[in-house]
Design a protein that fits this description.
The complex is a heterotrimer of chains A (637), B (596) and C (158). Chain A is built from 25 helices and 17 strands. Chain A is of the alpha/beta class and 637 residues long. Helix content of chain B is 24%, strand content 18%. Chain B is α/β, with parallel strands linked by helices. In chain B, strand 17 (415-421) and strand 18 form a beta hairpin. With 158 residues, chain C is α/β, with parallel strands linked by helices. In chain C, 43% of the residues lie in helices and 15% in strands. Classes of the chains: A alpha/beta (637), B alpha/beta (596), C alpha/beta (158). Chain B binds chain C through residues 451-452, 455, 457-461, 465, 469, 477-478, 521, 539, 541-542, 562-566, 568-570, 578, 581, 583, 586-587, 589-591, 593-594, 596, and chain C through 24, 26, 31-33, 36, 40, 43, 53, 55, 57-59, 61-67, 70-71, 74-76, 87-88, 90-94, 97, 101, 125-130.
Chain lengths: 637, 596, 158
């Protein structure tokens, strides 16, 4: 493959790729993302390959994440355009026989939420997809991430060709500035301004870096982009190098993403072969290359200054950033750092224009944002929505509401250092500024939904412990302050909270937020502060009543058998690891109680609750003590 | 970049309007204005770190107020800084409370907290830890010393300082910089004392690579010991050049050799003390608390290693001291001569010990007390009155346990000094805490070399020999070379000064004369007899003989000729005679001697 | 037999009668070292035989072999030459030349039947006064044992 040298060559080659793709009358796109692979997509792929047996009329794609992880593994059959969900290997022959050969829709495999008989066949009919507007993830279900030709067939690298051969760096800069693209990594900093500052900063060399150290628990946006469409990131970075005057590029990928790493390495190799990387890219005179650097799994290395230290081969610790990294970043030289999603947006802006981009989203936060929607919603998965969409739309329309019809309690945005937003905030439009004002933040796009059975204090404790664990320990407030906040939270969840703890949490949190050295420390008290702001009553219930409203905190709950429901099947008795459940002897039996849980022995492991076919195990908070156990429970009934 | 833009930034600190250069931090500006901002992780010779956050100040920039650490915040134009506002104080108090929770026993933390009125903490107190994780040690090792021997291990609350992989560091040069900068004393010098480089040749305590050689050195200028200087050895550090305001540190400076043409030379090359390790029976170098008189001097000196305190190896005061005279002197095994000064300085040492430790038992073990000199005998009498025990009998052995049945017993760890008390006529063994060996004086190690270079002679004991003990006591057999002081033989300070003055006068008299009288004894060639064979030219060590091409004879230069007479004996034709030693004269001498 | 030879030569058997034989030894001593040592030995009241008569020379290299021959010829029983230690010559290398000359001279003397002990070359530095005394004592005794050389008689008409 000779390296492409002119815009004309690129265009012709794109057309060639497109026509060779069009030669396939049929397309099967299997979601081969991490989530689907975990529930059998790999076996499914083998089954498909066997069933198709080299059929030249069918293009079988092992694509990146389609998004609807809740009902994976997903298969899309085109041009029939149906989405099959929860596909198993046994279904493969049927799909090949009926859908491919005869063009029939297999109703059994269609998405049919609830019991109301609703069935959805096409992607844009499914409510989960309907409210999304995919830009960055648009090609995920259409292309094979390991094939650059697929990407080219969909116009890939067209933006690069346009930027390098038809636009000056200044024009590219202007386009990005006009698009008001804001950093998708969490800060929401104006990318155009950042690029411009970096370009104008004095220095010998400039570095273009992609931050793929996505460490938030439950977040997989960047991973999915790298796995599903790695070339879009490469294209964005090369365009960035052209505009900024970058001399070399790095991508900092966490080592826990082996699949993303593999896909991206492969993409780099291909881009090299085609002449989109390396010396004299497309004959423009731009020399640029991207090196992969693998992170060791430290959350703090997602912070820019720590990331640079890690890239330099030192311990990843942040440092004071009163001089911006665009002036002194990697090796004290001008550095432009953006995250995966930001880079992936760049080619779209160049090829479709700033005006188009600003047509999506809000005035101050244009474009789309990818979120990983997880937690207690019906439809978990990866979503891309226009900015300005309300939380309610995300949680109830796309997410399909709370699992099991329970009540919504809160949504945590912005990852571990984001904040908890209550039901009253559900109608807030999601953009950078509004979320910050509400005491949370956009973050890189983690969104965790909590139902009524979630304890807010427990969640705050979990995130605080996570951040404490990930704190580098350099500055005093983060290292020591978080530890004390964690201790207080542990105390509260153990029922040992004191009235003054509320005041202390707030004060300590404020102190950390004001004085910590890096972004991790400054935002670390967010989970606690925001949950106090919106759920103070839950904290007080823990402290004053020893009651956990979510019935989660073990020290504050007790397990009992509801005599009204218990049939005496004994299933609970068998699973109890500590033999706390005993049959009640006949002579003592009152109120029809057949089984009794000895709360003094009970470890509160919840095993009985999970096996009980009658849902007869109830959780009480505050915990009921042994002597009064039966009496109280009876009274309560 | 910074150098070119000499733009000055305006700012206000605590109401004072001032200016700062670009790149300066608030802390630097505050220091200049003598505004006190507390710090725990800052040292001006390492890069700002911003870990302790104690230096937090309030900054108003573009109308917005925020808290920033003064050590890392670069001044911007037009900012207004408050270093002691209510908010700042409140903030620092909170941070100090945080520190107190974990470091309640650390002095520097407690003191600073106390200054801010924080004596208790609302945080849950933990067992006090000494290390406050300020990272100064790690940074000084990396940035100043360049050894990179220390690092932080683990992260978050488990973070602590150690060597890489917690093993013995291969790059540590034991410079002690980490211990020096440690604000809490967590890193202790004791831990590394065994490896600390000792510059002084004396075994008493370390000194720094940069030091004034001794208290009364002339010129009193510090020198850098290239062997132990980190910069000279590794290229790192250079801290001295950073702190030296007149910029007087010059690492490039080399030893220079200067040649001087002089008319006369005074050799006052001094002596060395006897090395008592050669006399194994005294246990020097083998037993603790056996020291030489010079080491005692080093210790008792007010500017010495202990600041003048007399201490044993374990740091406690000795309660009994034995001073052993004539170590290496008046001893057939080493030097037969008397070193002349030891009796008097031994008396002085006893006096000093009595002064510093009034209740100490002091023993002087002597062969004879030699106190010749003005006021010397009187000083001896004074010591007798001060209650020093004088035992007439040389100390013969020092051991760590008693060897004689008659040894005097004592509690605790003692040194036992065996001697014969010749006045009582009994062998004794004294238990003491410390033994001081009064070492004698010896010629310097290079005395022989010096004698060779200057063509002077030495006596059997190795000291330089004078031309004549009575008639020319400071002259040598080489004209124009004079000797003075202990180079000529052991003597005390008054004698050395007197001899030095005499030597100087002798040298001056040469200069004063303005001309040098040549020795009349030279050789001459008899032009009539010389055959021009040039044999004489070959043997002349001074190149004083040249060949006259015209006359075909050898000619001797009278000024260059040193009159050895070698050529006279070598001349095959007997053409050369030596004035004053011609053949006829010697033959006449012979004849006279053998006339019988 | 050696004893008889010595006895024959000893003064006891001569016409002079019972006057004991006192060897006459000529010492050519260099100014800087051995002469200084002899001077110091005297100042130091060292005791040694008076048999060595000293002729001071500037350097041992001044000692013309003919002086030694003449000394023996004129009645000396022994000749002592004293110089500085090798490497310490006041004239840098004079004593090396002396060594060369004296060893040749000794070969010649042995051909004349002069015993080796009668000519002695010693390095005695200025400080070595005890060595000087020892050398003089030792040489005197050795020459005494050898008896008079009586070389002079060879030149007298029989």
């Amino acid at each position: 493959m000779p390296r492409l040298q002119t815009a004309e060559q690129v265009k012709r080659f794109q057309e060639r790729c497109k026509s060779s793709l069009d030669e396939f009358p049929l397309v099967v796109s299997l979601c081969h993302g991490t989530a689907c692979c975990a529930i059998g997509a790999k076996e499914l792929a083998e089954a498909f390959e066997e069933a198709l047996g080299g059929d030249k009329s069918v293009k079988f794609i092992k694509s990146g994440c389609h998004g609807f992880c809740e009902v994976g593994p997903l298969v899309v059959v085109r041009p029939l355009d149906v989405v099959y969900q929860r596909v198993k290997s046994d279904d493969v022959p049927e799909i090949v026989e009926r859908s491919l050969k005869k063009g029939e829709v297999i109703d059994r495999l269609l998405y049919h939420p609830g019991d109301n008989g609703n069935v959805f066949a096409k992607e844009d009919e499914i409510p989960f997809y309907a409210k999304q507007s995919k830009v960055v993830l648009a090609l995920n279900s259409h292309i094979d991430p390991y094939s650059i030709d697929d990407y080219l067939a969909y116009g890939g690298y067209g933006a690069l060709s346009r930027a390098l051969l038809e636009m000056t760096p200044d024009a590219v800069l202007k386009e990005i500035s006009d698009a008001k693209l804001r950093g998708r990594g969490g800060g929401g900093f104006d990318a155009g301004r950042k690029w411009k500052n970096c370009r104008e900063a004095p220095g010998e060399r400039r570095h273009i870096i992609c931050n793929a150290d996505e460490g938030d628990p439950g977040a997989f946006m960047d991973e999915s982009i790298l796995e599903g469409n790695p070339h879009s990131v490469i294209e964005g970075m090369v365009i960035g190098a052209w505009a900024i005057g970058g001399d070399d590029g790095f991508i900092y990928i966490r080592n826990e993403y082996p699949r993303a790493l593999k896909a991206f390495s492969n993409a780099l190799k291909q881009a090299h072969e085609y002449g989109f990387l390396g010396e004299n890219i497309l004959g423009s005179g731009l020399d640029f290359d991207i090196k992969i650097s693998r992170g060791g799994g430290a959350f703090v290395c997602g912070e820019s200054s720590a990331l640079f230290r890690s890239l330099e081969g030192m311990v990843g610790e942040p440092r004071a950033k009163y001089i911006h990294s665009v002036e002194r970043g990697y090796h004290e030289e001008p550095t432009n750092l953006n995250n995966v999603e930001t880079w992936a947006n760049v080619p779209h802006i160049i090829s479709r224009g700033a005006k188009w981009f600003r047509g999506i989203g809000t005035e101050d936060s244009p474009g789309t944002k990818v979120f990983s929607l997880v937690g207690k919603v019906e439809n978990t998965g990866l979503i891309e929505v226009p900015m300005g969409i309300t939380l309610r739309e995300i949680v109830f329309d796309i997410g399909g509401g709370i699992k099991g019809g329970k009540a919504f309690k809160a949504v945590q945005t912005g990852g571990p250092s984001g904040g908890c937003l209550p039901a009253s905030s559900l109608d807030l439009p999601v953009d950078f500024d509004v979320l910050t004002q509400a005491g949370s933040m956009m973050g890189s796009g983690g969104m965790i939904v909590m139902d009524e059975d979630t304890c807010v204090v427990d969640v705050a404790k979990y995130f605080t412990d996570f951040l404490l664990e990930e704190s580098c320990g350099k500055c005093l407030p983060c290292r020591e302050g978080l530890m004390h906040m964690s201790r207080i939270l542990h105390r509260i969840t153990e029922g040992k909270g004191k009235p003054e703890d509320m005041d202390r949490l707030a004060r300590f949190g404020d102190a950390i937020a004001v004085s910590a050295l890096c972004g991790l420390g400054v935002s670390a008290p967010n989970p606690v502060l925001s949950s106090i702001r919106y759920f103070e009553d839950e904290y007080l219930a823990h402290i004053n009543e020893h009651r956990c409203p979510g019935r989660v905190c073990r020290a504050l709950i007790s397990y009992h058998v509801d005599p009204a429901r218990c049939t005496g099947c004994g299933a609970c008795e068998k699973v109890c690891p500590v033999e706390a459940i005993q049959p009640v002897p006949d002579e003592k039996r009152k109120d029809g109680l057949l089984r009794e849980i000895d709360v003094a022995v009970c470890e509160k492991c919840s095993a009985c609750k999970e096996v009980c076919p009658e849902d007869a195990i109830v959780v009480e908070s505050p915990a009921v003590t042994t002597e009064h156990c039966r009496k109280n429970v009876t009274e309560m009934r | 970049m910074e150098e070119t833009s000499e733009k000055l930034l305006k700012l206000t600190i605590d109401g004072i309007e001032t200016e700062a250069r670009e790149g300066e931090t608030i802390l630097q500006v505050a220091e200049r204005l003598l505004i006190d901002i507390p710090t725990l992780c800052h040292w001006k010779f390492v890069k700002p770190y911003g870990a302790c956050r104690i230096c937090t100040v309030e900054v108003e920039v573009h109308g917005k107020t925020r808290m920033v650490p003064a050590c890392t915040y670069n001044v911007r134009d037009g900012i207004v800084v408050q270093t002691r506002s209510e908010e700042v104080i409140k903030h620092r108090k909170m941070l100090l409370e945080l520190m107190l929770a974990r470091h309640s026993q650390v002095d520097v933390v407690r003191k600073l907290a106390h200054e801010y009125g924080v004596d208790t903490t609302r945080f849950e107190e933990m067992p006090s830890e000494q290390c406050i994780n300020c990272g100064l040690c790690v940074r000084v090792c990396a940035e100043v010393v360049g050894a990179n021997a220390l690092t932080f291990v683990k992260r978050g609350t488990e973070r602590y300082v150690s060597t890489p992989f917690e093993g013995e560091s291969e790059t540590c040069i034991a410079c002690g910089a980490c211990a020096y900068v440690c604000p809490t004393g967590h890193i202790k010098v004791e831990d590394i004392r065994g490896r600390k480089y000792v510059v002084s040749e004396l075994a008493l305590g370390p000194t720094t690579p940069i030091h004034i050689p001794f208290a009364a050195a002339i010129p009193g200028i510090p020198v850098i010991d290239a062997q132990s200087c980190i910069h000279m050895q590794t290229g790192g550090c250079g801290i001295c050049s950073k702190v030296c305001e007149p910029d007087a540190i010059d690492y490039e400076m080399q030893d220079t050799f200067e040649e001087m043409e002089v008319g006369s030379i005074i050799l006052a090359t001094g002596f060395k003390t006897f090395d008592p390790a050669r006399a194994e029976q005294y246990g020097y170098g083998r037993l603790d608390n056996v020291i030489t008189s010079l080491e005692f001097e080093h210790m008792s000196h007010a500017s010495g290693v202990t600041g003048g305190a007399l201490v044993k190896e374990d740091g406690t005061e000795p309660k009994s001291v034995a001073i052993l005279h004539c170590i290496g002197s008046r001893d057939k095994n080493f030097n037969e001569y008397c070193s002349r000064v030891c009796c008097m300085y031994s008396l002085k040492m006893a006096h000093l010990i009595r002064e510093k430790i009034p209740d100490a038992d002091i023993y002087e073990l002597y062969i004879d007390m030699r106190c010749p000199g003005s006021g010397y005998e009187e000083f001896y009498n004074r010591l007798l009155e001060e209650g020093v025990h004088f035992i007439r009998g040389k100390g013969v052995e020092v051991s760590s346990a008693p060897t004689l049945a008659t040894a005097e017993r004592a509690e605790g760890k003692k040194l036992y000094v065996r001697c014969e008390d010749t006045l009582l006529g009994v062998p004794r063994e004294l238990p003491v805490d410390m033994v001081i060996l009064s070492v004698g004086l010896e010629p310097t190690a290079d005395a022989e070399e010096i004698a060779r270079v200057f063509k002077i002679t030495s006596k059997a004991d190795g000291f330089f020999m004078e031309k004549h003990p009575k008639l020319a006591p400071v002259d040598t057999l080489s004209d124009g070379i004079f000797i003075a002081g202990c180079a000529q033989g052991p003597k005390d300070i008054p004698d050395s000064v007197a001899q030095g003055a005499a030597a100087a006068a002798a040298a001056m008299s040469l200069i004063d004369a303005g001309e040098v009288a040549l020795e009349p004894i030279t050789s001459v060639v008899d032009e009539e007899v010389c055959t021009g064979c040039k044999t004489c030219m070959v043997v002349c060590p001074f190149g004083a003989i040249s060949y006259d091409e015209e006359k075909h004879i050898s000619v001797i230069n009278d000024v260059l000729c040193k009159a050895c007479g070698c050529c006279v004996a070598a001349c095959p034709s007997g053409a050369i005679t030596q004035r004053g030693f011609d053949d006829a004269q010697i033959e006449a001498e012979l004849a006279a001697l053998l006339m019988s | 037999m050696a004893d008889i030879t010595a006895a024959e030569k000893s003064p006891a058997n001569t016409a002079e009668g019972i006057v004991p034989f006192e060897p006459k030894i000529i010492g050519f001593l260099c100014w800087w070292c051995t002469y200084a040592a002899s001077d110091m030995a005297g100042t130091s009241r060292l005791k040694y035989p008076p048999n060595v008569s000293i002729i001071r020379v500037m350097c041992s290299s001044r000692v013309d072999p003919s002086f030694v021959m003449r000394a023996f010829a004129e009645g000396a029983d022994g000749v002592l030459i004293g110089g500085c230690h090798p490497g310490q010559c006041h004239y840098i290398s004079g004593n090396y030349k002396t060594v060369a000359r004296i060893s040749l001279l000794k070969k010649m003397l042995s051909q004349f039947g002069v015993e080796d002990e009668r000519l002695r070359l010693e390095w005695i530095s200025a400080g070595e006064i005890h060595k000087y005394a020892k050398v003089v004592t030792d040489m005197t005794e050795k020459v005494r044992k050898l008896g008079p050389l009586n070389w002079r008689k060879n030149f007298e008409p029989k």
